[in-house]
Design goal:
Blueprint: E1 12-14, E2 20-30, E3 35-42, E4 52-57, E5 60-65
Antiparallel strand pairs: 1-2, 1-4, 2-3, 4-5
Length: 76
């Protein structure tokens, strides 16, 4: 998540125009990265890493970004 908010199962994933492009399958706080994290499905033409997406949380679009798994930061 790029903004404050925690993704929850079945939240809508939207593009910049508010069009639904997928849905969240799970989400929680990621203690190792200090941010909310989630997983979900998006249409393949929106699946490029780094793409900005929006989750519909309480009828407001909250920004997020597609990143590569795993979510954690390695300790060197």
């Amino acid at each position: 998540m790029l903004e404050r908010g925690i993704p929850r199962k079945d939240y809508e994933i939207q593009d910049v125009n508010g069009v639904q492009i997928g849905h969240v399958t799970s989400g929680t706080m990621g203690p190792s990265v200090g941010k909310a994290i989630g997983m979900g499905y998006v249409k393949s033409n929106y699946s490029e890493l780094g793409n900005k997406i929006f989750l519909k949380i309480r009828n407001k679009p909250i920004s997020a970004q597609l990143v590569k798994l795993p979510f954690y930061k390695k300790n060197d």
